[in-house]
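COMPLEX REQUEST
Ligand: magnesium ion
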Amino acid sequence: MSTLQTPSPTSVPHVPDLPRADTPKRQRAHPGRWISAVIGLALLALLVRAFAMGQIRWDVVGQFLTARVIIVGFGWTLLISACALALGVALGFAFGIMRTAANPTLRFAAWLYVWIFRGTPVLLQLLIWFNIGLVFPRLYIPGLIDERMVDVITPFVAAVLGLGVNEGSYLTEVVRGGIGSVDRGQIEAAHTVGMTPGQTMRRIVLPQTLRLILPTLGNSAVGMLKFSSLAATIAMGEMLNAAQRIYFINGAVIELLFVCAIWYLAGTTMLSIGQFYLERHFGRGAAGSEPGKQWFRMRPRRAAVSGGA
Amino acid sequence: MSLAVKAVGVRKSFGSHEVLKGLDLEVAYGEVLCILGPSGSGKSTFLRCINHLEVPDSGYVWVDGSIMGYEHRGDVLQELPVARLRAQQRRLGMVFQHFNLFAHRTVLGNVIEGPMVVRGLRRTEAEARAMQLLDQVGMAGRASSYPAQLSGGQKQRVAIARALAMEPSVMLFDEPTSALDPELVGEVLEVMRGLAKGGTTMIVVTHEIGFAREVADRVLVMIDGEIRETGKPGQVLSEPGDPRVRTFLSRVLS
Ligand SMILES: Nc1ncnc2c1ncn2[C@@H]1O[C@H](COP(=O)(O)OP(=O)(O)OP(=O)(O)O)[C@@H](O)[C@H]1O
Ligand SMILES: [Mg+2]
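STATUS: Structure written out below.
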């Protein structure tokens, strides 16, 4: 302070007339936003016009949108996705916990699982599961099961196994990252109140892991809905397969593909909405968490925490 | 006076750095012991060895009638299974410098977690007892808040209630006020003073010389992994015999 020159009263500059405290304020205009909105709308209109005038029979799209085969196919799509996601999440948690285990055998087993199933294409895995009967003609577990493999591995089972086991390998890494980012101090605190490693994992670590990886799980669900279309290649009668069988006969290729696109979009939109509410529910107690009110944001959202992958 | 804690020749190294150089200690039931010492002298490590968060390389700690983490069989100390170690650990309440509250649980949820999961109390029982403890630390009004919504002093008082809820024989405090803004230190020390008056056995690592002087039955000064001085606070703090202790105290007292 002492080094600063304190102006003597006589040298205080004359203060010009300053506005009153309650002077109304006007926000800055954002011409760029308006211009880009107009350009965007114009481009959108052009696109819509192009498709409206293109070689698409929209009445055929409308007609097949609610066709029974398509709806049943979409039902299979949803069922495959749900089962594969459930399997993936179960495997992801099981192997993700194993990845952090003290027992080196468990850690290695989990590493091997990730190495194999994350390192090969999911379409290839689907085809291998579907044809696994070529390697093991019979599935024989003493006292439990003794059947021909082709009877056990139906296209549906192959699709769920292929997609689920593959997803599990990604989620293993996500869960491991989530577990690793739970505060060590809280784990020690759990030990000092006498909680065993299992109790600590279930009651302290996993609930917080779940909150951290929820955004990633949401992405998995959306991805799974779309990847389930790969099952069309192993003769699973899900929606894309149903659409293909129809257009091989009536030739309305693009119309039926658009029907599928509309249903997939509807499905992924529902999932995004569900994800928003789930994240809001699990955000309780998180430091600095301020849940949004709407699932769609007009204003940009800060990047959500993600376990990677 | 019967013994609550006895440390016997506790040594601990991290890599080639010997942090604890064979420490011996006895603490009686009802006694309040304050551990002082410069940063890096091994105070936290010693406290963590007492409740077996760190495993001593050699030597052991005997608490409340049994050796932490081991069973004496013939001429060996046999390592105990985790469940039995945890049963020993819960007899020591631990309060950390950085609170370590469970972030996904409310204040009440933090306090009832141990009693319900570990002691098997019913929720109503656990909650009734937890509310008494929260009242004791002045946090009953915030029972449904989450840790992120509390000040440091409030978090630490909840952490103390959480430790007390396990009804431990001994309370360990590792610099419970070091992470707090100066104006929040008092409220935590006040709670600890109350515990000491109530006869709780306490081992407190602290830099609060005033607290040690007023509340401790005994003060211990650690330097470089060794106990250099121990005795009544009046004696140790006013006329330490060890020259290095004198240097340390003159620095913190000024
Ligand atoms: N997990 C660990 N790995 C390696 N070194 C460690 C570990 N924990 C502690 N140390 C080292 O052991 C020494 C003693 O640490 P400790 O935390 O016990 O000191 P302290 O007396 O509690 O100090 P402070 O007053 O700063 O808390 C330090 O040199 C520290 O770097
Ligand atoms: Mg320390």
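REMARKS: Chain B is about 35% helix and 30% strand. Chain B has a mean pLDDT of 94.
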